Each structure stands twice: as structure tokens, then as C-alpha cells.
Amino acid sequence: MRRALLALVPTAVAALLLAGCTGAAEDAATGASPAAAPASADERPPGSARAATSVMAEHTVETPHGGGDHRGGEVTVTLRAVEVSGGTMTVRWALRWDDDAAEADAGISYYDMGVQPVTTVTDGTSLRAYRPFCTEGSWQPGDEVGIAERAALQMRCEESMLVSPLEDIFFQFPNHGTVEGWSLLPAPEKRVETVDVLPLEGLPAFTGAEVAYPDGDA
After folding, report:
1. Mind listing the pLDDT tens digit for each residue in 56-112?
2. Where is 148: in which H helix or E strand?
3. Phi-psi domain of 31 (left: phi exceeds 0; alpha: psi -120 through 50; beta: other)
4. Quick one: which of 213, 212, 207 has its CA closest to 57?
5. DSSP-assigned states of every residue in 74-112
């Protein structure tokens, strides 16, 4: 069971153009097709030892209260890397929940925190925002689509995002445990050196994150 998309674009990037549809969809503003999404979850990028130990930046906040049972303690979200290779951009992040008052085997879910596993990367220079590839639906249906169909396409896109851990809102993050995550998005149209990254909707964003190009210049 998954929760419906709360908002198409976060408030901070509401005025930006949005990319990250399925490979067949076209950008509503430019008519340019984004890079095709991988065909299945089997093609999603694996984690790496280096990515799992690097720390670009991190924020620690009081545990947000969502729709589930209230959880105390604090949540630490870590940005590990933003990597561009070919037509894709991979955001690697981690989340840790710590609550000394909770049972050692307790867990907390996206639903409990009121958090959505939707990553948004903003390129402030070109005024574009990027969201994860999805294998069905579209983040930004064309203007010819009606309101009901638009909502259905956006929900299908959210449900088929190329992200990890799974976008099931009841996925459990263990107490005092760190869970590694990543999202696969379209690469920026032009080379950029820094971007703003919101790994998860409902938790703090990171500004001025450096973009790495493991395969050399894009």
C-alpha cells in the first residue's frame, strides 16, 4: 500500500520546470524527451562501499510526526553523493533514526514520519528541477490531460519510481540503524557543478551539493 503523491513540486521549486518522466514522455515546456528510464528494478544502480561511507553533508532533526504512531528521538539524513554518468544522475543518501526511549527492535516508517521517498534535485542556474525516473505514468502530463487522469498518471509514476529503499510507505527504518538509499534521475541537460538536493520530501534539503562525474566530463 502506498500513499498518493502529496504535491507535484515542493514549494521551493514550484516555479521550476520539472523533468523525470518515463522515457516515452516529453518535457511539456521544451518538447525534448528526457533520457529513457531503465526498464526494470534489476537495472537500478547498486550501492558501493565508497558511497556507503562518504559524507557530503548531513542534517539531524527531531523525528517528524506523520500519520502513524508518534515516535520520538531524532532523524539524521546524510547526503553521500550526487553522481552524473551518461544520461542519468544518481543521488545517494542515508537515513538513521535514534530513539533511546524506544525498544531496541523498534522501527519507524515513512508513514510514521509523514515523509515521501521522492527525491528532487534543483539546478538553480537553468531553473530546472529533476525527479526520479518512473516506469509508468508521468510526473508532468501534457496540458491535454484532464484533472483526474493527471492525478492517476502522477500516482502511477510515484508508485514506479526508481528509488531504494522501496517506496512502500510502511518500510521500517530500525532504531539506531542506518539505511542506505538512492534515487535514479535524469542527468542535467548541461554540465553543472553544484545542485540543491531534497533526498526525501518532509526532511531537510541540502544546498550547493557538488556533482561528481565518475566517467569524466559530461
Report:
1. 999 999 999 887 777 899 999 999 999 999 899 999 999 999 999 999 999 999 999
2. helix 147-159
3. left
4. 207
5. EEEEEEEEEEEETTEEEEEEEEEEE-TTS-TT-EEEHHH
